[in-house]
User: Fold this.
Amino acid sequence: MMSHLLQRVGGTLLTVFGVLLLTFLLVHLVPGDPVEVMLGESASGADRAALRADLGLDRPLPVQFAVYLGKLARGDFGVSIYGHVPITQLLAERVPATARLAFLSLSLALLVGVPLGIAAALRQRQWPDRVATLSALTLSAMPHFWLGPLLMLVFALWLGWLPVSGMESSASIVLPALTLACGLTAILTRMTRTSLLEVLGEDFVRTARAKGLPEKTVILRHALRAALLPVITIVGLQLGSLLAGAVITETVFGWEGVGRLLVESIEKRDYPVTQACVLVIALTYVLVNLLTDVLYSRIDPRIRFAA
Amino acid sequence: MRLPLAIVLFWTAVALVTPLLGLAPDDIHLENILASPDAHAWLGYDDLGRDILSRLLTGASVSLTVAVAVTLFTLTFGTLLGLLGGYFGGWPDRLLMHVTDVFLAFPGILLAIAFAAVLGPGLDNLILALCMTSWVGYARLTRAQALSLRNRQHVLAARSLGASTTRILLRHMLPLLAAPLLVELTFSIASLIIAEASLSFLGLGIQAPHASWGAMLRDGVRYLLVAPHYVLAVGLSLMSLVLAVNVLGDHLRDTWDVKTQKAGHD
Assistant:
């Protein structure tokens, strides 16, 4: 198991290096002179030279990359072009908002999706199953920038139960969280259903039933524990699309998180901030996937006891 | 299967015919700002008094053009890389896998957003940004299949008969990849339609005054209070197309019994 873990960590480090390289190269993809694009035509020569030196664009590419990595290692993401604020500070202001949003939508999705999936599996081809399948299909065709406004229309404008957007009241989080949670719930329902149906056909479930255990114990103690393992992996993978989805959802609802910061920085052509946001989201995703994998191998006895 | 097929065919026909209709999606009628549907404009007018239906149809055309253009490029490029990697193996293959790993480390359309942001707005850059990110799915799929195909009996037979590598790849392996690739292609069209709309929604894709579904949704959200029919019309159109394409994809997958991993692009 240790070698499995080491291999996984090694692979992750390689990926992280690639992510850093690609994010670093982003600024060099800007057509023409990035300094000119960022500052606009009215900027003075001195301002341009200062920014060029600040970003290290006058040095050879490998040196720039080494400097970039060195700064990141010290937790220094650089300084924003607008307002000259340290980007670390900007992120510190925005990350908690996105984290709250992600946590709430993930919890919502788990609380609804898993029970719904169990119900669908136990009542295969009956109405809970059909509802689950149909809603999963529909929600997969509803991007956040369409579902969000729809929820806004119904719950904020027509029913007037919740605030339209912003972050003023504590109820403001409900609509963006719902927007993010819907798609995830659909996926979790599908996964739980498929996984539980597979497990219910296994020998150990038949044995449990043959021992005369009550059906409730068979499902809850024996089948469900095995069935939820692949669901853990899906949750890890889906957290990524949750974070990516937050970019759009936060924009729709004016939620001041990392996603909104990313879009604002793009609008202002503040590329160092864009770079930092992309990096933070991607690295969080990589890390969560690694953790999921480790957790999985700790829980699954087939991996835990292997070699 | 008739209804999803009909919906896809309908939007394809719209995309093909709209440019020939001589609509005026960009014509501004200030006296009609956010007016409700009438006999001339069945879906009403937008915030500049433009006919929403004309813009909706033009948007469909843009959306499908982008999806088809990106698909043609990424299918060719991704499949070629995957075939070569899977067939030859060795360090180029390992490099290919590492590169795809890095691309997959950026969740959803995050990387496309980043590319579109630095490349600048506009139709060309939008297509470029989506091309740069969506070849990965085809490369991974083809590579995995090629890996298992290269030691099949008929491939070994062709090789021992002295067939050239090109011939083996194109005539003996590619035809067996057609089914899974077509399933992947269907799902990828659906996610490209969403991706194009997402980028345009964020202001990174098609620019004003040109019509696109994403940009229309953004304007629609702004005037949700006064003209809810605006958002509803565009959203429902987009949803019907994506849903129909996905259902077709599911159907193809079940019919051909193909196991695919849906690549995340939402």
Q: What stands out?
A: The radius of gyration of chain A is 24 Å. Chain A has a mean pLDDT of 84. Chain A touches chain B through 52 residues (CB under 8 Å).
